Amino acid sequence: MTGITVLKIGGSIITDRSSHIPRALPEEINRIAREIFGVYDNLILVHGAGSFGHIFARQFRLTERFDARGLIQTHCSVKILNTMMIKALASEGVPGVPVHPFCNCLLEDGRINEMFFSHIRVMLDQKLVPVLHGDVVMDTVKGIDILSGDQIISYIADKLGADKIGVGSNTEGVLDDEGITIPSITPGTFDKIRVYITGSSHTDVTGGMLGKVQELVELADTANIESRIFNGAIPGNIRKFLEGISIGTHIRMDTQSQ
Ligand SMILES: Nc1ncnc2c1ncn2[C@@H]1O[C@H](COP(=O)(O)OP(=O)(O)O)[C@@H](O)[C@H]1O
Ligand SMILES: [Mg+2]
């Protein structure tokens, strides 16, 4: 059996992030499903919430306070996007199944404290593709908080011992101040590079590019797990990543700690 691959698909590539109402990009969702067909052995997918989550999270200020109406509206909204993804995968012949973080995760002050994933192992044994997503989740300190897809991938990769992690977002990788893709980032070089990295250009409650890189540098540092951030909006890139071709920015451990 091959090792586990965890692939995150950014909300920015499957939804219209500039929209003021939740708006999906069905052609992009279908394209991504086609790229995954045939290369989904031991694959866990995680997609961002995009405009299906960030708009309500901002409107109800869900990262700051408990709000029952906002919680329900946000969770129902991100589930609609997840269902679109599941249906697109099914129509392309990929057996994706939903795993809603609201139902299997517990946060402590914004960080995952518990996550039930025994069923994810059985799903992989049965050749299914679990599909998780950014969601609103109960939090022992704050009542609720937003759990980003970026935090999910690093947690799950660590706990399940993934050996391939990819983050498909909407830039070529992590860019420097001249817009050039930084080939690799390690825990040792991150401090110098972080001045170039900020949040998202859209409504984003989970940290944009900086949030991703922080999660993945920490994962390289603490669990020796490498990852890649690449442009998932360019047709063919998701398949390239799944086939093991080197693209985007490589986030890895420092050479001396290997
Ligand atoms: N140095 C950087 N390199 C690439 N993207 C950056 C950088 N700094 C900030 N960003 C922003 O982060 C965005 C990606 O994060 P985000 O919008 O949260 O995407 P996703 O939907 O994939 O999570 C980019 O589109 C860009 O606007
Ligand atoms: Mg994001």
The string of secondary-structure elements, in order, is EHHEHHEHEEHEEEHEEHHEHE
Whole-number count of domains: 1
- CATH-derived architecture: 3-Layer(aba) Sandwich
Ligands (ions, cofactors included):
adenosine-5'-diphosphate, magnesium ion
Query: Given this structure, which CATH class is correct?
Result: Alpha Beta
Remind me, CATH topology?
Answer: Carbamate kinase
Which strand order spans the largest sheet, edge to edge or round the barrel?
3-6-2-1-9-11-12-10
The biggest sheet amounts to: 8 strands, mixed
CATH homologous superfamily, by name?
Acetylglutamate kinase-like
How many strand segments? 12
Q: Which percent range fits the helix content?
A: 25-40%
Radius of gyration: 17 Å
Q: Report the uncertain regions.
A: none
> How many distinct helices?
10
Silhouette: globular
Share of residues in strands: 15-25%
User: For the terminal residues, how far apart are their CA atoms?
Assistant: 25 Å
User: What number is the mean pLDDT?
Assistant: 95
